[in-house]
Write a structure and sequence with these properties.
Elements (H helix, E strand, L loop, with lengths): L1 H4 L4 E6 L4 E6 L5 E4 L66 H16 L4 H14 L6 H6 L6 E9 L6 E3 L3 E7 L4 E7 L4 E12 L2 E13 L5 E4 L14 E7 L3 E6 L4 E6 L5
Helix pairs in contact: 2-3
Length: about 280
């Protein structure tokens, strides 16, 4: 966190889809840094509660992410029992299929993985492959992902897979994204409990199943101090496109979301809230 506080012409961007940090300079293209070379922390400690079982998480107007600052051990995701310019190919828009039994079983595997963090990575990779190939209708994805009103909904990153699903792992630290469909905003954060947090916020656009985004500011919080905010919004107000970072979404319901990033890595998230 100390190096992050010294940012004047360089910025760090966390990519949940590729398990990487990007070092961005005003005068150069992004440099990719693996999180494993920067952070070595315990498993993410956030308590997830099903929006089905908990009124707070029913499609709410104000979903909030909270952290448990004092305990960074043995906290796992819990979900409700009900199911509810590396080149990345842009999906063909002929995709109008509905979930079948194989997809439903794969979704259950991922929800079990989010709940227990005990499902073998081979099962997760297989489930992700099934969901990617299913070509489900994305027409309701954005509304489910980002809600109908600001500030949107929050999702915790659970698992990331390499390009072509060759390998993958549970994400080792608490990383959360907020998508605001109504306000067309995105926030991406890494949370280190009492140590602080690093978050980015910017604007997003949606076309078919592709969510593109541009970050405009960074917030650095260290310990109990108020966050330091650095704006790097340029003069370009154009809508984000696939020339910018993006996610291609393959599945979104009230509890689970699956997407592939521009770098080719696939990941899945689950809905979350803060627990103090």
């Amino acid at each position: 966190m100390a190096s992050a506080a010294a940012l004047s012409s360089k910025f760090i961007f966390f990519s949940s889809s590729s398990s990487s940090l990007f070092l961005i300079s005003n005068n150069s293209s992004p440099t990719f840094l693996k999180t494993s070379s920067i952070l070595s922390l315990q498993k993410p400690l956030i308590h997830l509660t099903s929006p089905i079982d908990t009124p707070f998480l029913k499609p709410t107007n104000h979903p909030i992410l909270l952290l448990r600052p004092a305990k960074l051990k043995n906290t796992r995701a819990t979900l409700g029992e009900k199911d509810q310019n590396a080149t990345v190919p842009i999906p063909n828009q002929e995709e109008e299929e509905q979930p079948n039994k194989e997809v439903e079983e794969s979704v259950k595997v991922l929800k079990d993985a989010a709940k227990t963090r005990q499902v073998a990575k081979e099962e997760i990779l297989s489930a992700l492959s099934v969901i990617e190939k299913a070509k489900l209708n994305p027409s309701k994805f954005l509304d489910t992902l980002g809600g109908s009103k600001s500030p949107g909904r929050t999702w915790m990153l659970v698992f990331t897979a390499e390009k072509q699903l060759k390998d993958g792992k549970y994400f080792p630290i608490t990383a959360v994204q907020r998508f605001d469909a109504a306000g067309k905003r995105i926030e991406n954060g890494v949370y280190l409990g009492p140590l602080g947090s690093l978050t980015f916020e910017g604007r997003l656009s949606w076309k078919n199943r592709i969510l593109a985004f541009i970050f405009e500011c960074i917030r650095i919080k260290i310990g109990p101090f108020n966050p330091l905010e650095i704006n790097f919004k340029g003069k370009d107000e154009s809508e984000p496109s696939n020339k910018n970072p993006f996610f291609i979404w393959f599945y979104v319901d009230e509890e689970l979301a699956v997407a592939r990033g521009k770098s080719g890595g696939t990941a899945f998230w689950c809905r979350c809230q803060r627990v103090i």
